[in-house]
Amino acid sequence: MNRREFTLAAGAAGLGALVSEAETRAEDVKTMGAAPTFVLLVYPKMVLQDLVGPLTVFNLTMGKTHLVWKDKSPVATDVGIAVTPTHTFDDCPRTADVLFVPGGLQGTTSLLEDEATLAFLRTAAEGARYVSSVCTGSLLLGAAGLLRGKKATSHWYVKNLLPLFGAIPTDGRVVEDRNVITAGGVTAGLDFGLTISARLRGEEWAKRSQLTLEYDPHPPFDGGTPEKAGEEITRDILKIRSPALLAAREAAQRAAARLRG
Amino acid sequence: MNRREFTLAAGAAGLGALVSEAETRAEDVKTMGAAPTFVLLVYPKMVLQDLVGPLTVFNLTMGKTHLVWKDKSPVATDVGIAVTPTHTFDDCPRTADVLFVPGGLQGTTSLLEDEATLAFLRTAAEGARYVSSVCTGSLLLGAAGLLRGKKATSHWYVKNLLPLFGAIPTDGRVVEDRNVITAGGVTAGLDFGLTISARLRGEEWAKRSQLTLEYDPHPPFDGGTPEKAGEEITRDILKIRSPALLAAREAAQRAAARLRG
Question: I need a surface site. Which of A14, A30, A201, B180 has the fewest CB within 10 A?
Answer without folding.
Answer: A30
